[in-house]
Amino acid sequence: MSAVKKAKSESPADLNPRTTSYEFLGPPGAFLISFGVPFMTYLLYFGCSETSGGCPPSLPSIPDRFEAALSDKAFWLSLWDTEASLMYLGWYAFCVVAWAVLPGDWIEGVTMRTGEKKKYKINAFSTFLLAMGLSCGYILRNGPESFTFLYEKWIGFVTASLVMSVVQAFYVYASSFRKGALLALGGNSGSFIYDWYIGRELNPSIGSFDIKSFNELRPGLILWVLINTSMVCEQAVRRGGFANVTDSMWLVLAFQTWYVADGLYNEPAIFTTMDITTDGFGFMLAVGDLTWLPFVYSLQARYLVFNQVELGPLRSAGILGLNLLGYYIFRDANGEKNDFRNGRNPKNLKYFTTSTGSKLLTSGWWGRSRHPNYFGDLLMALAWSLPTGFETPITYFYVVYFAVLLIHRQRRDDENCEKKYGKDWETYKKLVSYRIIPYVY
Asked: What's the start-to-end Cα distance of the chain, in Å?
């Protein structure tokens, strides 16, 4: 009997077993994070902007300002901007249309519990090039002042992305109860708030349109670069043209644009990540992809609009070197892993064979630590923050947050591997003892 036929013959309870363990402290944690992520997104703006009086504002003034804002109806109304909301909706629609009409290969993902493989259309990089081409052409024709609206309407765009995230979370949660839906193993607890947050269905789709992978790669990731471009335009307007934009701003734009372009160009690699193969799609991924990523990751560029930093050649070269080192480790480590997963081993790397026949790399970057790509990610994160200088710790929030995120992912990966490989995992950990940073952690 084929794997597909065998899976289809199983009862829904066997195919979608009840989730018996929680992450993020269960339903209470899911509830708190669902409010905490939007709150922190707004806080990073109101706590670090020229309209708030500093980055951060005077600490003694914060309690009174906070209380006054919460009790002011005008403040709550200011969070909504109809024009920004319509522009955001138009942007999301543009990404959907680009996915539909731009050519792209269809590739298969990993084998699911049903024995089937889901197909994905590969054209995120084409969408990126189209969006950047249209944006740059618009700026060249109409001047930098025509593209500052993302800076000027920041809060309106944040709110619009949050509304989109909430709507999508409710839609995919409701649709997960249809007959035949394949649920995420971690999202079928029976608790509404937890399953709504973590994601109940593994791959919610509308026809061939996969909502999760689309959100992961297109509307938020490309918008991040467009936001940074808007920040460059805002600074250019204030300083009298692009020729006077600071070196720090150009570095941030170059680093983060390259990172996004690289990720979109290597789109097929995402379909073996835990976000796609294991996690359901709920509010956690929706708000992370659509709100947190573009509006928090662009904090450094937004800060440099109103706190302009000139680095000079030496400091610029040092920061550039750090980013290139991080990128080299990140890309080379991922290249070793992807080659090995696809049956290639051009570097003749050593590996450990488990009792189940699985092979785990024990040399190259993967012999130095169990997650060397995370190490490269952290070096790049630091390089993105260094151009802002050291006047405030807030612009280093991304580094701290990303470190916490990667450590959480590393521990979750280790727990899953321990369940999968048993005693072999303990043997492997003796061969590769460091988790992320070689000789440190």
From this structure: 46
pLDDT in tens, 340-395: 877 788 888 888 888 888 888 889 999 999 999 999 999 999 999 999 999 999 99
Structure tokens at 309: 């930093």
Q: Which token pair is 307?
A: 């706190």
Q: Identify the burial level of 290 via C-beta atoms within 10 angstroms of its C-beta, where 0-12 means exposed, 13-18 middle and 19 or more buried.
A: buried
32, two tokens: 């708190």
Of 429, 263, 271, 427, which is closest to residue 342 (Cα–Cα)? 271
- Whose tokens are 């009298």? That residue is 240
User: What are residue 117's phi and psi, to 5 degrees?
Assistant: -125, 125
- Integer CA distances (angstroms), 132 to 102, 139, 261, 366, in order: 15, 10, 11, 35
CB 384 within 8 Å of CB 252: yes
Place of tokens 């990720």: 263
Spacing of C-alpha 99 from chain mean position: 19
Q: What's the predicted TM-score (pTM) here?
A: 0.90
Write out pLDDT tens, residues 263-276. 999 998 888 888 89
Using one digit for the tens of pLDDT, what is the confidence trace for 133-148?
Answer: 999 999 999 999 999 9
